[in-house]
Amino acid sequence: MNENQVSGCENMRFKDNKVIIYTDGASSGNPGPAGIGAVLRYGDQKKEISEYIGNATNNIAELKAVRAALCAMKRRDLPVRLYTDSSYVRGLLALGWKAKKNTELVEEIRNLVKQFKNIKIIKVRGHQGDADNEQADLLATSAIRNHRSKT
User: Fold this and answer.
1) In which band, very low, low, confident or very high, does the pLDDT at 149 lie, cut at 50, 70 and 90?
2) CATH T-level assignment (fold) for domain 17-150
3) Taking the domains of the chain in order of start, what are their residue ranges?
4) Could you give the residue numbers annotated as active site?
5) pLDDT digit string (tens) for 1-31?
6) Are the beta carbons of 64 and 93 closer than 8 angstroms?
7) Helix (H, G, I), strand (E, B), or coil: what is residue 83?
8) Within 13 A of 123's CA, how many CA atoms are on the CB side?
9) How many Å apart are CA 124 and CA 131, to the nearest integer?
């Protein structure tokens, strides 16, 4: 099973003692009310993050989801596979794209990524049935809906 084939076999998913993270950001309007979602898995442990972040662009929400997930990590020595459906996030954090906007946030996340011994950022296709990717999306959009219902 390669790293791009994480769906399916739960028992193989953590074979190499890796933390698996799925992140997603959502914006209702661009910019507009925004939320972040993340699913973190390690062995049989699971953590979910769902947070309303105020008005933001979708790209900012995607980046803040990554930041929240990485900040939630207690151990930085474990291998991490971070899955995102954002080409923007992968380009900035894994392919060396130059940030033209959101430069402070991007630099903050790049510095955070450097604290991990072994991290890979992998692009997945959104809304293609991967349970954890779909859950990260639900967490992000739910944060927006929950905020709206309170106001």
Assistant:
1) confident
2) Nucleotidyltransferase; domain 5 (3.30.420)
3) 17-150
4) 24-25, 62, 85, 127, 137
5) 333 333 333 333 445 689 999 999 999 999 9
6) no
7) strand
8) 11
9) 12
